[in-house]
Design brief:
Blueprint (H helix, E strand, L loop, with lengths): L2 H11 L21 H9 L17 H4 L8 H9 L8 H15 L1 H4 L3 H20 L4
Helix pairs in contact: 4-7, 5-7
């Protein structure tokens, strides 16, 4: 064998002498969301045990299937501070926070100390909800 033949044999031995392709050459035909996958989901007679073709799985599943855990005591207290129910969505929490900040800001209340205290509680409640992952 020549040196080139030996080098070729060694390179092919790394993959067990099986053909290989560069990454991405044969991809995306059977990817989730492709026309092939959609056709396969509708016409397939097999059971999808692991939910590979289930539309409730994937990056948009959170939007489609909103399941939220029950709020913990401090999270419930923060929601009460913002005057929101436990079922409030992220957008509702943000909107209520913005509304309360505008209402209780010292510039809007002429420096009223009770408004400043209420503003501090609102900010702490929103920060707690954000950091705890309740409204993420």
């Amino acid at each position: 064998m020549s040196d080139a033949d030996v080098a070729t044999f060694q390179r092919e031995a790394l993959t067990g002498h099986r053909p290989t392709w560069n990454l991405g050459v044969n991809a995306a035909k059977a990817a989730f969301g492709s026309p092939f996958a959609a056709r396969f989901r509708r016409e397939s007679p097999f059971r999808d045990t692991f939910g590979f073709f289930d539309e409730t799985v994937g990056p948009d599943a959170r939007e489609r299937q909103e399941t939220r855990r029950k709020p913990r005591a401090l999270e419930q207290q923060a929601l009460d501070t913002l005057d929101l129910p436990a079922t409030a969505s992220l957008n509702e929490i943000k909107a209520r926070y913005k509304e309360l900040v505008k209402r209780h800001h010292p510039d809007a209340n002429g420096g009223d100390r009770s408004a400043e205290e209420r503003l501090r509680k609102v900010i702490q409640a929103y920060d707690y909800l954000r950091k705890s992952g309740f409204c993420s």
